[in-house]
Amino acid sequence: xxxxxxxxxxxxxxxxxxxxxxxxxxxxxxxxxxxxxxxxxxxxxxxxxxxxxxxxxxxxxxxxxxxxxxxxxxxxxxxxxxxxxxxxxxxxxxxxxxxxxxxxxxxxxxxxxxxxxxxxxxxxxxxxxxxxxxxxxxxxxxxxxxxxxxxxxxxxxxxxxxxxxxxxxxxxxxxxxxxxxxxxxxxxxxxxxxxxxxxxxxxxxxxxxxxxxxxxxxxxxxxxxxxxxxxxxxxxxxxxxxxxxxxxxxxxxxxxxxxxxxxxxxxxxxxxxxxxxxxxxxxxxxxxxxxxxxxxxxxxx
Length: 301
Known about the structure:
- The chain has 301 residues and is mostly helical.
- The protein has one domain.
- 79% of the residues lie in helices and 0% in strands.
- The chain contains eleven helices and no strands.
- One of its GO terms (biological process) is regulation of cell shape.
- It is found in: Cell membrane.
- Its EC number is 3.6.1.27.
- GO terms for molecular function: undecaprenyl-diphosphatase activity.
């Protein structure tokens, strides 16, 4: 009997190890899916947070504080893609800035001016936004409203740009334009509105063309997302008691988000040189309707 019980116990232990291993793999696989979503959506005007909330609900990727930290880490991976793609401009402008030269000072102070509105409002309203707006219903509203705004503002910009001179380079953005873009970025605090879409729309209203608006949005993302990430990491003690599986998910997620964003940003800039952004607006509205149906039928909460 003792021998039988011993063998039975050993089989239970082996089964638990196999199940545990499989569960770890499933968790990492889900993390990879979320990282791909982040890499694709972070710099497109379709809302990365909205898509991560939606996909996270669908695949049940919710591990409390770790999920918050995971999203921060993969967003930083996406940001690294911008640094790599625009390395020469990034490096030259920073060197110029620290040498107190006009080019670098002008470039980074306009970025700072655009960053400040979201920094202040985000700091003050972070708890409210997190507790009340991070759900599928608010994302649905953000998708649809953001899509409609994208169509209206782009059409208005195209009409005006035929009559007025537009800014074609981010090096020529002035402080008045920067503050307009910064104020528009605050709209992105509503999940589903999209930081990229909000800043690009702000760029259009400020008089930037498609390429300049998108590039300014990319550079503005650096202090915005690093600042938001720092706030979250200070606020949540998510890095304590972290498991090996979670560490693996963080490393893989960072790399995947970086590589995907690297490809997507390059393709997006080529797209903008030839096409309007109406296709993204229509996608947002379509996704908003689908989301609304799923939320109404309680498929997602």
